[in-house]
Write a structure and sequence with these properties.
Elements lengths: L7 E6 L4 H13 L8 E6 L3 H4 L5 H12 L20 H11 L3 H16 L8 H10 L4 H9 L2 H15 L8 E3 L5 E2 L7 E3 L2 E4 L8 H15 L11
Parallel strand pairs: 1-2
Antiparallel strand pairs: 1-3, 3-4, 5-6
Helix pairs in contact: 1-5, 1-9, 4-5, 4-6, 4-7, 4-8, 5-6
């Protein structure tokens, strides 16, 4: 079956969101088991376009380790630089450019950009950092830099975010979804916050292999759908 004809599993996500990072690591761990059966699509949902702010450091530094303990395969380290990103749009634009070089190229770029922020204290809001990450991911750099310098990448990211919010009612990240609009639930213990302070953390809903087993059920749900049964944007 051609890649374009495969059933799809979507995840709308934000690059600065630690919960998206954990969920994405699990999805990318399981995805090879479904190669040529289900296509995983990581779709951009920059929260700065919704909330008017990006990467709130005071909140993220509280959530950082709460997310880290939930997925050992996700590399986390303290963010030690004062050069904190004020936007993630360049990282998303780079992702669009990487995806144009194929799913494998996108996956390698995506893994590296998340690790760059959460484990390497790199400002993924800077275009020069994104170019460095693309080079480290082994992308076709003449093509990447040409497309990254154009306007099409940003327009595509904005269109995706608008599609997520207006057509699929995406409100936060990560949001896993089938192309018919059915939302799926990641097993994550996200904290409750009051006045930007964590006040409660629920019990962990899974651990280790149980988390991957729950992730596999998402791919299995995608297999149950007829290809291209999307209500829009497929």
């Amino acid at each position: 079956m051609a890649q374009a004809d495969l059933p799809e599993l979507w995840q709308w996500g934000e690059y600065y969101c630690p919960w998206t990072y954990v969920a994405t690591v699990r999805l990318q761990t399981v995805a090879p088991e479904y190669r040529r059966r289900v296509r995983l699509r990581l779709r951009p949902f920059p929260l700065e376009l919704i909330d008017g702010t990006s990467a709130p450091r005071d909140i993220l530094e509280q959530e950082w380790w709460l997310a880290a303990i939930q997925e050992p395969a996700a590399a986390f380290a303290p963010y030690r630089s004062d050069d904190w990103p004020t936007t993630t749009m360049p990282a998303f634009e780079g992702a669009w450019c990487a995806e144009r070089q194929g799913d494998d190229a996108f996956t390698e770029y995506d893994r590296r950009v998340r690790r760059a922020f959460f484990a390497e204290s790199r400002n993924i809001g800077k275009r020069e950092t994104v170019i460095d990450i693309a080079r480290e991911a082994g992308l076709d750099m003449p093509r990447f830099t040409r497309e990254f310098a154009g306007e099409e990448a940003r327009a595509a990211v904005l269109a995706e975010a608008r599609l997520g919010r207006e057509c699929f009612r995406v409100e936060g990240t990560p949001t896993a979804m089938l192309p018919d609009g059915t939302q799926l639930r990641h097993l994550l213990a996200e904290p409750e916050m009051t006045d930007r302070i964590v006040v409660r953390v629920p019990p962990l809903p899974c651990c280790g292999e149980a988390c991957l087993a729950a992730t596999r059920t998402m791919f299995d749900r995608a297999l149950e759908l007829v290809p291209h049964a999307a209500i829009g944007g497929g």
